Amino acid sequence: MNSSSGALVSASTKSGYYDASASRQAFRSAEIIIPPSGYYQTAEGNTEEYAGIRDNAFKMVLDEALSTFSIDVDTASYSNLRRFLTNNQMPPKDAVRIEEMINYFSYDYPKPETGEPFSVTTNMAVCPWNTGHQLLMVGLKGKTPEATNLPPSNLVFLIDSSGSMNTSDKLPLLREGFKMMVRQLRPEDKVSIVVYAGSAGKVLEPTSGAEKDKIIAALDALNAGGSTAGGAGIQLAYQTAKEAFIEGGNNRVILATDGDFNVGVSSTSELERIIEEKRQDGIFLTVLGFGQGNLKDGRMESIADKGNGNYYYIDGIKEARKVLVTELGSTLFTIAKDVKIQIEFNPGAVKAYRLIGYENRMLAKEDFNDDKKDAGEIGAGHTVTALYEIVPADSEETFGSVDALKYQKPAAAVVESDEILAVKLRYKEPNEDTSKLIEKVVRKTEIKDVPTGDFAWAASIAEFGMLLRDSEHKGQSSYEDVLKRAKANVGEDKFGFREEFVTLVETAQGIAPAGNGQINFK
Fold it and tell me: Domains plus CATH for the chain?
């Protein structure tokens, strides 16, 4: 394969290319797109944007016994940082969202019981990077309906065809990804295509999945050019989805873009407002990010969150196949919406705690019982994982203090219990507005000496993420420890994604000492 096809090529890293020979045959497939030399811009010429992230701090249980957050099934951060590391560059710190790294991978959690949309699993062990602390894992696994029971889909492909999409890793890759998806459609499914450049337009009316050639021909006819009227495109896409709405079906807009909207409604807040209004019609949103150099990651993540949606970054045809073919069910079919987790820590067992990741998914404690408060969705077969670092109650660590309150009495005495914490989850069925509650407790007898299996794998990813972010909470983290634990817990790896992770850690280990190699973006 040669560079003109958009395939991986091998050359000096000084020219901006990645040396495939050092990457286990380029992650097995040689499918990650590397544009021609010079495509990677300097920091001064790069307009990529990432929302700022401040690591969650430790919270004292006596002050804040409840930790509340929305689940997150986005995976864009992982495939984006893979893009950087594949090119021997450390990702910018704010591009590293640890929860998305962890949730990129599937975990072998128990299947849900009959009638339940997902199962809840908890594990607890000594924290690998701070042996004086403990690590809690909370895992969810969504049910996987039989293919014959999946509802028909009404899909609107909203495609950015502006001039900024005219590179091999954008519109051409987007086109091939959608073609793969179209080949999976059933006759009862239907697809519309809306494009936007200087203005928005409909290029394909709702078309049955049986007419694959017609849909593919419409995709092949797309060309890139003009400015980017993203807001107008979003409005037309939702209007199209509403006109073709399938009652009881999967109604979804799939937005494919680099996020660089620059005409008409283009600010993130304005776009969020539009999407928040449109989601009331029962139409979900999936955002697919493409390209580099002008990627607006923060904007795409934000609008996906507001649209009852999910966000993926497509760095090559292999990732397109993962999102749009292999994991199509979890990408498209929501089995539970507004999924929230609230954990109550027992001060008799826990002194302090810290949620690892999910910084932009935190909720007020009152939001947990508020069914009007939006939260994340979980798709068919999806797994969702969250990790907490916990400081035991008998620890001598201090986390700051304030003077005694003048107008309040001291806190009540701690209740004696063998429970460490209680996990509560709220969720709604996709077409309902009233939430349901699931509860589970974790007892002291459940603490293990070390994480094992999937728990150890997730811990390795969290530790790697803290190293990439140079987190103040990384403790005794090291690339050596990450590699040792990851290699020992690869487990079943059907598609090679876990082995690929090991390669990425090795790459980061090799380039991190040289000033970290990080590029500063907005």
Answer: 3-39 (no CATH), 59-145+335-395+414-517 (2.60.40.1230), 150-331 (3.40.50.410)
